[in-house]
Each structure stands twice: as C-alpha cells, then as structure tokens.
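Exam revision sheet. Question 4 asks you to relate a sequence to its structure. Input first:
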Amino acid sequence: VIKNRLFKSAMSEQLGTKDHNPSKGLAYLYRTWAKGGLGLSITGNIMVDRNALGEPKNVVLDGKSNLEPFKLWAEAGKINGSHIWPQLNHPGKQIPNYITKVPVAPSAIALENGLEKGFNKPRALTENEIYDIIEKFATAAELSKAAGFTGVQIHGAHGYLVSQFLSPRHNQRTDRWGGSLENRMRFVLAIYQAIRHSVGSDFPIGIKLNSADFMRGGFTED
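Answer key, structure tokens:
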C-alpha cells in the first residue's frame, strides 16, 4: 500500500562508486525525497550486468555487488513511510562507444539519425546470452528484495534492451524472440516470470513502457 499518489519516476543519477556500488550520496538524496513526503520513489538505472553500462558511474546490482550500501540506500528511501523500488535495466546497444566497442542487441542494427557517431553497431545476441540476461534481471531483483527495497521496476522504455526487443524496427530476429508481437514480447515476459519466481508472489514488480518510440516501423500504441 502506497501512502499517497506522489510517485517519483526514475532519473539516472550517475552516483555509483568506481566499483558500481551506491555512493553515500544516493542514500542522502533518497532520504531527502522520502522526508519530503513521496509515496514511492523509483531509482535511476541500476544495471543488471556490469559489462553493459548505459553511462559512467551507473550502479550495478549482481552477485559481485556489496549489499551493505544497497541496504543503507533502501533504508534511507523508506523513512517517513515511503517506498523505494530499484529500476532494473540492460542498455542493449545504447552503450556509448567509449564504454563498449561491440554492444549487444536483438539484431545487428545500428542506431541512426546521428546517434551512430556515439554508439557502435551491435552484434545480435545468441539465445544462450538472452537466457543469461533474463537470469541477471532475476538475480538483481532477488538482491533488491534482500537489501530491503520494497519492489522493483523493469525498464522497458527509452530504447534500452527490453524496448529494443519489443520494437519491430530494432528486433528483426527470425527465431522465437522476434517477428510477431508474441515473439517480441517473449523477452520481457520471461524477465517478469524469472523475477516473480525469484522474489515470490507478494513482492511488487512494475514496468516502465513507452506508448510509442516515434520511429517509422517502430513501437506504437497498437
């Protein structure tokens, strides 16, 4: 139960340490928002794979993470009766080229309209790699619960990996992960199911989706 209708959507704070753990600044920031009366805060991008960062100083939550600063962050975000959910994300091909030379995506399709200057053309994920990323989301959610967060949000918007799978423009695979809407939805549904299995039936799981990606041949309201 959220105490009111005040909801802070995610923004990417880039306040991770050099080891991609939360800095003390994140706890201070979310404590301040909680004191201000928010019912629910969604954190900025928390990456599920430390080899796939959307930006420098992203926080990563995986088996190598130190859970203590995550626990401090969660506790700070829960004061005053507030809730705090980590936003879990994989950037796919939206990784700046100074971070990763060859990013991964559903299909080997480069970003366009000038973005190719800052983002390299990706290679297509193998099916085993797809399953591995699904498990990384589940692990991050399980660790979120263990750290004391009150739910999680899957980032399925803004052109990141989940959005790339949903888009018929970016996902041109010919296997069970592409083509029809049913196939393009398979990735995000598998992520949800894996997270649900890892956190149990009573832990909230949200998702952020765009209504459209405003690209011809892309993701639409329909």
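Marking note for examiners. The mean pLDDT is 95.
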